[in-house]
Amino acid sequence: MTMVADRPEGLEEASVATPEFEKAAERAASRRGFLLSLPAYAYLVLFFAVPLGIVMMYSFATRNRFGGTDLSGWNLNAYRKLGEPIVRDILFRSLWLAILTTLICLVVAYPFAYFIATRTPLIRNLMLVFVMIPFWTNFLVRNYAWRVLLGNDGLFTNISEALGLGERELLFTTSAVVIGLVYGFLPFMVLPLYASIERIDLSLVEASRDLYASGFQTFRRVLLPLSMPGVIAGSILVFVPSLGAYVTPEILGGAKTTLLGSYIVTQFLTARNWPVGASLSFVLMAVMLVATLVYFRTGGRNL
Amino acid sequence: MSSTVQPRGTTKIALTAHSWLVYLFFFAPIFVLIVFSFSDDNNVGRWGGFTLEWYQDFVEHNQLQNAVWVSVRVALLSTVISVVLGTLAALALERFKFRGRKVFDALLYLPIIIPDVTMAVMMLLFFSEFFDLLDAWFGLDLQKGLGSITISHIAFNISFVSVVVRARLAGMSEVLEEAALDLYATRWKTFRYVTFPQIVPGVAGGALLALTLSLDDVVITQFAAGPGATTLPVFVFGLIRRGVTPLINATSVLMLAASVILVALSLAFQQFSGRGGRPSLRAAREAVSAPPKTNTQIKEGINQ
Amino acid sequence: MKNRKLFWLLSVLLAFALAAAACGNDDDDGGGIADCEVNETDGNLNIFNWAEYIDEEQLAAFSDEFDVSVTMDVYDSNEAMQPIVAAGNSGYDLIVPSDYMVAILIAGGTVQPLNKDAIPNIANISTDFRNLIYDPAGDYSVPYQWGTTGIAVDTEAVGTDFPRTWGLIFDPAIADEHSGSISLLNDPRETIGAALKYLGYSLNSTDEGQLEEATDLVASARGRLAAFNTDSADEFLTTGETVIAHGYSGDMFTQFLETDDPSRYVYFVPDEGGTRWIDNMAIPFDAGSPCTAHTFINWLLTAEQGAALSNWNYYSTPNAAAFGGLDEDLQDFLSTPGVAPVEILEEIQDTGDFEVKFSDAFIEAKG
Questions:
Q1: Which of A62, C10, C18, C318 is the most exposed, fewest CB within 10 Å of its CB?
Q2: Per the structure, how many domains does chain B have?
Q3: A199 in contact with B, Cβ within 8 Å
Q4: Where in the sequence is the domain holding A152, given as residue range(s)?
């Protein structure tokens, strides 16, 4: 993605600032930017960063024999535990599932978001709301409904039987987990994709078609670069929660393999080993944060 | 932003078919959920003949109704606040360079990245200390409840809203805003009539996301909650040990019906106010919907 | 620049203040026995309980009788409830922890000692529920409901003359026949515990060698499983998803009654032994209305209320005075051989540092 891609070409020269005002304008912009961010900034410092600091202390503490946490005798034991092979296996397995989920969501959501973005405003709003409506039902009940669909007497088994593929039960398989995750996080991909595709001046698409670009070329050279911010935002919104998901793998996957999300939950809520839960969370967050920021940098701009 | 460019031929057919399939995917479990809300069996996965018993139960179940109300109130309140804060944050990060920007940028991603159980634990510890502190310093005897749940939901929703709004803002031309400012529109007017109409899809998307996340959250809510402040997901999660019954399906169906009615009403209202809306607003909408236009047209849009 | 510094300064200050508060306030309310009379109330009652464990109408009856308002919130696991209450400021007056959790709560100073003079009906508790290992003198807790963990089978698939052993799940010679139709609870202590029992050990064993054997056993059974599942083990059995299910007595029993032919399913505790779990009432250290809580406990221990409780949630009651008032179905089930063989049951105990090993072993077994 390049700068050119970020600005529709015809508008490029209009935004060039005159040099003499630059300094004063920069200072004013800096002040304004700061003031705009202040409410959210202050909010997150008080209600997120400070609580995060408290948990961070816990990651260096020790689990006492009653499953409480002794805030003394600071050590790195919890971090050391993360080097164990079982944690590594869980991590790789979860990464693979999260990547797969993200890719499927992207492939499914992109044409869908594009289709919505090219409707009339009324239809567009309607379509968008109908994406979200299913998700205003209860999360757990949705998962149970999937269990019915994927179960031994469910729709999918019947379809595969009707197609002559034999009785194929998906429930309690990895495929069921992926279906559940894609279902759960697809809207997270659709929304930012829609928001960024809708912004694109679609006459650019028309122009490219007029100039005999193929549909794929138009997508590859025009649409995709212009919608990259949406692709990135959507990928993060899908990837991150799929990596931490634990309810869907348990309900649809039969909990037969442990994924990262359930490992962390287990540390906090079964083993009551808060230091390990906290340290794992911090390592995960640090890696993800760095990855995210690098992703954006290499994405061409600092989104 | 023109909606006149429609995909053509086979592409169009494929796109249309694909969208229907996606909706089928979205609504298949919802269909199952609705059907089983009428099932005369305690299990959500077994059909036991038609009944309206679960709807009857809902009407009689005070605790459940209370949970639904708590959920709805928390969701709406946290969505409104986080949409305002998140949009401001997105604007600041996309439109301005300021000191502390990088730290803020990173801070803003953390609530998305953090595992929810970790956030739950940290909010629990935070509130219990925070309230002790308020008590010790100011003699305020606060208790966890609706307020602490809402505060926690805002804390993660700000980030989700800002990510979606930023996806919209990123690379959006500033030329119209500059033109408006050149034409002596105030900063507020520029935002109100130029910037905001352009980012509405992002803001709306962010709001939908925030609402959904808030309505679905279990662990963070559970740990931030206090007496009498059980949300629907927390209540439903509690049922896991005894088995979730179609009562929850019925509850979901009722919420679904309510939201569909609300959506229909708001669309009708939009249609109505869209036709009879203030001319300046319409002009501004038109002005931004087909850039680039001449400055005169934009000026008309703003100064009317 | 100034602004940013201010931020950091504020954040650091706040962090320090909170840290100071964190170190200073432990157990500030804990300690003494509440000074309460029988049937005394000192405010409204906030209960933190498992979901669907008591009828709203029963709570309303208490509310009417004693003229206090009753609020109930629910949790889904002991481990989720414990930190919420232990952190303080939870606002709850009465909690319902399971056996091993009572020991943890006592050790952590999270629950207050009961004033037994204010709970005369404690005399109604059956002798089977005295001298409990997690709270020997019953100073902190009063049993609420109880049940066992065992195996339920679908006799249509398994037949009626199956051996009553954990081997139905763990012995390849018996279990392979039903491969893919078996479920184990998704709970480290219960499931590793079942394997320990099959191997002839205590389910509270803290012997690493025994734990390893049990872990390998669960791992070897993994291929035969439909799922590790706690929330729907009973439902899977009656919908045909499974034919052999590891599960809780009360859940299985209510599920059987749901079907057209309840006699098709059998629940039993295998001969090697199983778990007896007991949920208890206890009062958090910082309860706002401890006397109302005492009064509620005493009220629930009457014969009438104890029977009403069991007849609604269909778990067994530890209240000897309430036995006569139980529904016939329930009495029949409880007297079925193998459902509650007291002599071979064992309670799960907190094993301290070894808990982490149980948890790790279970994850390892699941692969």
A1: C10
A2: 1
A3: yes
A4: 80-298
